[in-house]
Amino acid sequence: MARVKNGMAIESADVEVAREVLALVAGLIIIIALLSIFVTYSVSHDFIGSVYYTISSLIDLNNEGYAFAIITSLQPFGSAFYTVAGIELLDGVAKVVLIGFLVAVLIDALTSLDINSKINVLKSSRLEKHVVLCGYSGLGEQISEALKDKNRRLVVVEKSPTKLEELNERGYTALDGDFTDMEVLRKAGVERASSVVFCSDSDITNLMGIVAARRLNREIMVVSRAREEFSVTKMQRAGADLCIIPELVAGVELGNKLVAI
After folding, report:
1. pTM of the model
2. What is the DSSP letter of 2?
């Protein structure tokens, strides 16, 4: 989907193009309406009747009877007959263009509407004392499964479309976004959560997430993954309560099992 790449920039460009096309269609309809009023008034000298004819012609999609009566009554006037007939033709074209444009806009809006995202934002806004998991990595997947088995309420923040689709299929409350953004963390309910876990593969990204989460909630339990030992000190200074190096833990457990053999 094209909008995933550049987010707001592409979407705003689409909106701008839609506005320009809509303005063009509206301008065409206004010109046709004014021309219709002018021609019918010059023949009938009835301004109110001319306006009524024009409005009914533009609004009533089945205006064959009234339009036919007007055109027939103008047959003796020669050029006026052909002018009004031409206006009727342009009116039909304008209707087709306008209806086609509105249908295209509606279809595009329905196909681009991310219903799951809206529902998940609503769900997370009602949660309290839950866990916010930032980054659906291999470690994040294991943690989420463990929390799900314990019936713990969980919100996962992830920006990969593929992983978001997987999370939705598994029934998790998943939010699309960058967890280093404080606004995204607010949507995930960090201010009301009991703990937040950062599981991305990047120590720098996790560190930025720790800073953002701690600014939003001074009391929250902050847990983070670290790949390098020197990152642990930085994360703790930033506000992390617990830092885990999975490779180190796995190595110690494996060593203990080998010694026990």
Report:
1. 0.57
2. T
